[in-house]
Amino acid sequence: MVHTHLETSAARPATAPATGGMANALLHPDVGAAAHQAFWLLRVTFTIAPILFGVDKFFNWSVQWPDYLAGWINNIIPGSGQDFMYVVGAIEIVAGLLVAVAPRIGAFVVAAWLFGIVINLLTNDAPQYYDIALRDFGLMLAALTFGRLALAVVPARRSGALPRRPW
Q1: 0.90 cut: is pTM over it?
Q2: Terminal C-alpha separation, the chain
Q3: 49-86 burial string, b = 16+ CB within 10 Å, else e?
Q4: Contact predicate 74/125, CB 8 Å
Q5: Is 129 strand, coil or helix?
Q6: Is the pLDDT of residue 20 over 50?
Q7: Predicted pLDDT at 21
Q8: Is pLDDT of 1 > 80?
């Protein structure tokens, strides 16, 4: 296992008295390795999932995606709900590719997209889709967490403080 230290502005010098578990965790070398591994796990997830769901918008293999579109959105968009799903699918594919090549930007694009999905689900035939909205809210929080990790891990990798790969 690679033992590295992720430099953060919150890290305290080793001589500072520990005031709790977080202060000790920031000084422990495994925190950097864990953050790096979490970054890669989330990067792979938020690359593959949007691409797969985006492709599915064109074929409706898993579900009939237009059924999830809130009526008020369907009323303001041109064309049919399926036409809109083609646009949604293309955006999701691009978002997944953006995570792959520019995670510090892509993570926040995916989080914003998930926020929009949550709003759509909360306003579509309430409360039928609240469970899915809650799941997507959790995914949005994970994307925001990934974005925060990306803001720290990518520069650390570029500076050599972390290896290119965590394994």
Answers
A1: no
A2: 7
A3: bbbebbebbeeeeeeebbebbbeeeeeeeeeebeebbe
A4: no
A5: coil
A6: no
A7: 45
A8: no
Q: Where are the domains of the chain?
A: 38-159
Backbone angles phi, psi at 79, to 5 degrees: 80, -165
Greatest CA separation for the chain: 65
- Taking alpha carbons only, the member of 120, 46, 41 closest to residue 81 is 120
The encoded tokens of residue 142 equal 């994970």
Task: Return mean pLDDT, the chain.
Answer: 87
Q: Coil, strand, or helix at residue 46?
A: helix
**pLDDT digit string, tens, across residues 105-138:** 999 999 999 999 999 999 999 999 999 999 999 9
Residue 108: count of CB within 10 angstroms of its CB: 19
Token pair, residue 8, equals 């953060």
Distance (Å, rounded) from C-alpha 149 to C-alpha 112?
Answer: 17
- Whole-angstrom Cα distance, residue 34 to residue 30? 6
Q: How many angstroms separate the CA atoms of 51 and 40, rounded?
A: 17
| 3 state DSSP class of 29 | coil
- Beta-carbon neighbour count of residue 149 at 10 Å? 22
